[in-house]
UniProtKB/TrEMBL annotation:
Belongs to the mTERF family. It comes from the Eukaryota. The keyword DNA-binding does not apply. GO terms for biological process: DNA-templated transcription termination. GO terms for molecular function: nucleic acid binding. Keywords: Transcription, Transcription regulation, Transcription termination, Transit peptide. Pfam families: mTERF. This is Mitochodrial transcription termination factor-related protein. It comes from Cynara cardunculus var. scolymus (Globe artichoke). InterPro entries: MTERF (IPR003690), MTERF_sf (IPR038538).
Amino acid sequence: MAICIKSRTTTLLPQKPRGLSSFFAAIITEGLGTSFSRCSISTDQSVVSPKNCQDLFRAWGCNNQQTSHIFERVPSLHKAKLDKLQSKLKILHDLGFSSSDLVKIISCRPRFLRCKINHYLDERVQYLENLFGSKQTLQKAILRNPSILTYDLKTMIIPTVDLYKSMGINQEDLTLMLLSRPTILPRTSLNDEKLEYIRRTGTSKDSKMYKYVVTIMAISRLETIREKVANLEKFGFMEDEVFRLIGSSPLVLTLSVDKVQRNMTYVVGCMKQPAKVVLSHPFLIFNNLETVMKPRMIVAAKIDDMGLFPRIEGPKVFTALRMTERRFFKAFINCHPLETAKELMDCYLDAKHVKRLAEESKRSVHKGFPF
């Protein structure tokens, strides 16, 4: 019996309780991003020695709500290996991210913590920091597109950056584009046909629109560009006119075919304007048809029927459609006596709250990235 007890004692004594790495110990003792005090840490063994991923996220500073959100987005993290997950959290800590930033990253890219982000990481981070100009700007870029930490430096990041620089886009403009369109790096593709399209827009390299024209063309598929050009040609535009419109308003390529068709049909059919008016007033394609264009044109007709002044006619039509809602009220509704203004406001609100026909039953057709 004594021999048995002795053998059990000798097998138990060498075992030491699991502890946190120096990284997580530093986080806890310094109070970085955690609500646990030093006194509570010494008594809460589940935080000092994480037994699962939930304890690990707590040690990193995530509260219960944040932890629940992370596991809701990525249930497979329950089965993740603690050592690998800990090393990835350390990488994010070294880059300056907090627990709230982690939630944003997971919401944007649920599989981020399942990717291999530590391969050649230092070299990649150093290059990206030089590209974006500061660590703070790099953090913004990562929050917009966490996958940037997983892109291969030599086969994707450097070649894409060099391509845009060869097109005449300087580093400052390229940084702006990378922040506004985070997936430029993996989606960029330029060939002879796209280069010809860029040339036909007539946009010079000194133009403020040039960087938008090049980047949007580069990340768009050829089939998409052809389809959207052909869609505008149906309304009587020449192909060169369409490309000039793209040169002055590159974001036209980001609009769906359906939206352009509906807005153009309203401009031509209801507003009785020539289709080519959008060449000088491109906002007519971008405006929301249900909440901006229709309600204001209905109020314009109401003002005309009631014989009121000022009327919305001639060049004032385009001015009225570009105004903010508050300014529109001040210029054309609230300028009238109280009862008249109330009648016009009711007319405006009724028109604005009319839902698009069969909107709820409309099918969402996803043709893939980007536009």
